[in-house]
Amino acid sequence: MPNDALPRPRGEKPRRILFTGGGSAGHVTVNLALIPMLQSQGWNAVYMGSGGGIEKQLIARLDDVDYYPISTGKLRRYLDLQNVKDPFRVAKGVFQAFRLIRKLRPDVVFSKGGFVSVPVVLGAWLNRVPVIIHESDLTPGLANRIANPFARKVCVTFGETVEHIKGGKAVHVGPIVRRELLRGSALKGLQWSKLLPGKPVVLVMGGSLGSRRINEAVRRNLPELTKAYQLIHLCGKGELDATCDGVRGYRQYEYVHEELPDLLACSELVISRAGSNSIFEFLTLRKPMLLVPLSKGASRGDQILNAESFRKAGYCEVLQEEELTDEAFLGALARLYADREIIRSRMRQNEFKDPAGSIAALIQEASRK
Ligand SMILES: CC(=O)N[C@H]1[C@@H](OP(=O)(O)OP(=O)(O)OC[C@H]2O[C@@H](n3ccc(=O)[nH]c3=O)[C@H](O)[C@@H]2O)O[C@H](CO)[C@@H](O)[C@@H]1O
User: What membrane topology is given (predicted)?
Assistant: First the structure.
């Protein structure tokens, strides 16, 4: 924990904002986009998350953001011995968050959700610090549903989400996309991945943690896939497969950071899970997508709804996990490639009006009250 966690007299400049959110990158990347923007407007940003989660690693890559780890428990939907211990961990987290927030005295808390955010929201509420929540999925996650009564506003990415948010707190702002993603260079992407110009590149991204189902489908079909495409496969931590290393036109990486903009720029199509941040990034960059949403058995089914909304808008092909045969997979990708221009023209009709600016305005407003 940083040493400068000292009380700060109210009214002293700059204003301080406490961010939280974690568990997977999808609960952090919105914060990664907002933090530099708010810092440039004079805010002092601090972060509260778990001691060992991905949020800690991702926030460490930013300048001037002090990180405060707290105890946290997972909100599981399945039976597990940890379920007995976790309520105690969450209670400890609430206590830690309460004390830290009393010390740090932020003007406002911005929560991107994920299980680690619940103690922080409660700690803020107990200190009477205004809370703004962000929900990027079509239906709210469990953490955000628990946090809703303690929040002033809930910013949402999908228009359809407004009706799922209780208390009339929803504000439809649209997707928050990291600015650097818009500045990719196709040439650099090809050079970095050592792929060739002229043959279409498909980027495979199974969400921030990777997806075994997608990884297996891609690797099983490599001989067929590499006839038509080159592949950049972001397969998730611990999911590299050394037996595919020499395959011509195939590159695999566990997770990429600053290379992602260039890799996206050189990709014609994307195969992905249907995590909300990822698919809105692909939409913003006009990348036709083949989506394989996480099944209801393994989640609350939010990705199925995210994917269905994009399918209706004509941005993607969708295959449910149980439909993921080799024939269906290759067929859907071939259709996507054939339809890529029409899909891109539909995507071009979709313009979002400064979502990050709308959130900044809500943050300013909440911090004044
Ligand atoms: C298994 C699980 O619980 N998944 C949830 C999680 O997904 P997940 O954490 O995968 O979230 P998203 O797909 O929304 O976002 C992933 C983020 O990681 C980034 N990225 C990914 C790979 C990489 O190599 N480099 C990189 O920077 C992407 O650009 C994106 O910004 O949060 C999403 C948003 O609430 C939900 O929709 C998902 O259902």
Answer: Peripheral membrane protein
- State yes or no: 313 annotated in a binding site: no
Percent helix, strand, coil in the chain, to 5, is 45, 15, 40
Over the stretch 31-46, which tens digit does the pLDDT of each residue have?
A: 999 999 999 999 999 9
> Which residues sit opposite 46 in a β-bridge?
18, 66
Pocket of ligand 1 (CB under 6 A): 24-27, 29, 136-137, 205, 207-209, 234, 255-256, 260, 275-278, 281, 294, 299, 302-303
CA distances from 42 to 61, 209, 259 (A): 19, 33, 28
Nearest CA to ligand 1 atom 4: 275
Q: Is 60 annotated as a binding residue?
A: no
Centre of ligand 1 to C-alpha 282, Å, is 12
Residue 25 assigned ligand-binding role: yes
Q: pLDDT tens digit string along 87-124?
A: 888 899 999 999 999 999 999 999 999 999 999 999 99
Q: Is 67 left (phi over 0), alpha (psi -120 to 50) or beta?
A: beta
What is the torsion angle, in degrees rounded to the nearest 10, for the CA atoms of residue 356, residue 117, residue 143 and residue 33? Answer: 20
